[in-house]
From TrEMBL:
It holds the Pfam family PGM_PMM_III. Residues 376-448 form the Alpha-D-phosphohexomutase C-terminal domain. One of its GO terms (molecular function) is intramolecular phosphotransferase activity. Belongs to the phosphohexose mutase family. NCBIfam families: PRK09542.1. The keyword Magnesium applies. Transmembrane segments: none annotated. It comes from the Bacteria. This is Phosphomannomutase/phosphoglucomutase. Its cofactor is Mg(2+). Residues 7-135, 157-256, 266-371 form the Alpha-D-phosphohexomutase alpha/beta/alpha domain. GO terms for biological process: carbohydrate metabolic process. Keywords: Isomerase, Magnesium, Metal-binding, Phosphoprotein.
Length: 454
């Protein structure tokens, strides 16, 4: 019987419980199918610290080699380190990680040479079909040529490339608390930060895919509590929190207060525009703060608004030659990093900005954090379309209000906006609201929630 991959092949990656939903035998078939669909003669493979990752990545490599591809195995790495290898070596790549998911999960993030994403519309559907076919009919026949295996450590080269993209020469001494969440940040941070005038206070740097301290998901405020407390105890200048595969970075200021990823997007956008002569396109998704587009224009750039999701950001980055892109989920994309996302490079920008002047981080980011925001609020609903229609009906005839459907429904006025998006996988509607001040935001948020939940 063919394997049922409907539960593990997502829009952008493969992800599921090991060994219940997938195992090394399927990983080998994914390796073979990846080579078949991409036509790759050589690939790069890396993995995170989860207990199942070495075996799955080795099986994938064997499947790829059996189809004739030479495999460069870079071993333990962050997801953006795999993207570095894909870009610098000009190879398609496979990263074994389930990011912030619990320990029993694992997955594969795939890309073509130059870190170009592989998703549902760019090869993942074909890969799934081949794996299902082969799982029913048996392993595909080996090709005439067996691929080779090479081990290669790319960590120092990755760190050097990131450091070449940010001017860190004038950084003053800073005390930085870093919470790696027992994820791959504990592997990459010491090498990337080496030699900088930083007093590093490490938290949970031990690589442990069982996540004994807290989930490696800084998007959940509960997972920032330890970092916030430690920043205050240490009198640190800032705190950084990385997710499990260390491709996202969250920032905490000297008071232990979280800094909005939209504010980080605006700050980095201003710096990237300055680095590119005050010109360039910056991509932002539609739930980032209005601050982002304002700061981009103020610094000579052109803001472009997209749907939520890294595939849309990366597609627009490539199509428009954008220099930078940011999402409110703390994914940050750089043209000089093959349009791929790297939280580590965003962290270096924050360090350079803070260390290049004397004000504390809270004062520095205030210029980029101009509005009151609700954060994302999820509501379970019986009928997503009906609720969206009700919201549209409530606002479409109001004076001074505009509606658009780029992604879900966005309702905007001069002093406020909100967006409601349906989940693709759950019976949820996701609300994000923003306004000029807290009372206005609260009023608009509660109006929208009443319509969603009525």
């Amino acid at each position: 019987m063919a394997a049922d991959l409907s539960q593990i092949v997502k829009a952008y990656d493969v992800r599921g419980v090991v060994p219940d939903q997938w195992d090394e035998a399927l990983a080998a078939l994914f390796g073979a199918a990846f080579v078949e669909v991409t036509g790759a003669h050589a690939i790069a493979v890396g993995h995170d610290m989860r207990p199942s990752s070495p075996g799955l990545s080795d099986a994938f490599a064997r499947g790829a080699a059996a189809r004739g591809a030479d495999v460069t195995h870079i071993g333990l790495c962050s997801t953006d380190q795999l993207y570095y290898a894909s870009g610098a070596l000009d190879l398609p790549g496979a990263m074994f990680t389930a990011s912030h998911n619990p320990a029993r999960y694992n997955g594969i993030k795939l890309c073509r040479a130059g870190a170009a994403p592989v998703g549902q519309d760019t090869g993942l559907t074909e890969i799934r079909s081949l794996v299902e076919q082969w799982s029913e009919s048996g392993t595909p026949e080996p090709t005439d040529r067996q691929g080779t295996f090479t081990r290669r450590d790319t960590l120092k080269d990755y760190a050097a490339h990131l450091r070449s993209l940010v001017d860190l020469t004038s950084v003053r001494p800073l005390k930085v608390v870093v919470d790696a969440g027992n994820g791959m940040g504990g592997h990459t941070v010491p090498t990337v930060f080496e030699g900088l005038p930083l007093t590093l206070v490490p938290m949970y740097f031990e690589l442990d895919g069982t996540f004994p301290n807290h989930e490696a998901n800084p998007l959940d405020p509960a997972n920032l509590v330890d970092l916030q407390r430690r920043v205050r105890e240490e009198g640190a200048d800032l705190g950084l929190a990385f997710d499990g595969d260390a491709d996202r970075c969250f920032v905490v200021d000297e008071r232990g207060e979280p800094v909005s990823p939209s504010a980080i997007t605006a700050l980095v956008a201003a710096r990237e525009l300055a680095r590119h002569g005050g010109r360039g396109t910056v991509i932002h998704n539609l739930i980032t703060s209005r601050s982002v587009a304002e700061v981009v224009r103020e610094n000579g750039g052109t803001p472009v608004r997209t749907r939520v999701g890294h595939s849309f950001i990366k597609a627009e980055m490539a199509a428009l030659g954008a220099i930078f892109g940011g999402e409110h989920s703390a994914h940050y994309y750089f043209r000089d990093f093959w349009n791929a996302d790297t939280g580590m490079l965003a962290a270096l920008h924050v360090l350079a900005a803070l260390g290049g002047q004397s004000a504390p981080l809270s004062r520095l980011v205030a210029a980029y954090d101009r509005y009151a925001a609700s954060g994302e609020i999820n509501s379970t609903v019986d009928d997503q379309a009906a609720r969206l229609s009700a919201i549209r009906a409530a606002y479409e005839n109001r004076d001074g209000v505009e509606l658009d459907t780029l992604d879900g429904l966005t309702v905007s006025a001069e002093d406020w906006w909100f967006n409601v998006r349906p989940s693709n996988t759950e019976p949820l509607l996701r609300l994000n609201a923003e306004a000029k001040d807290e009372p206005t935001m609260t009023k608009i948020r509660d109006e929208a929630l009443t319509l969603i939940r009525s």
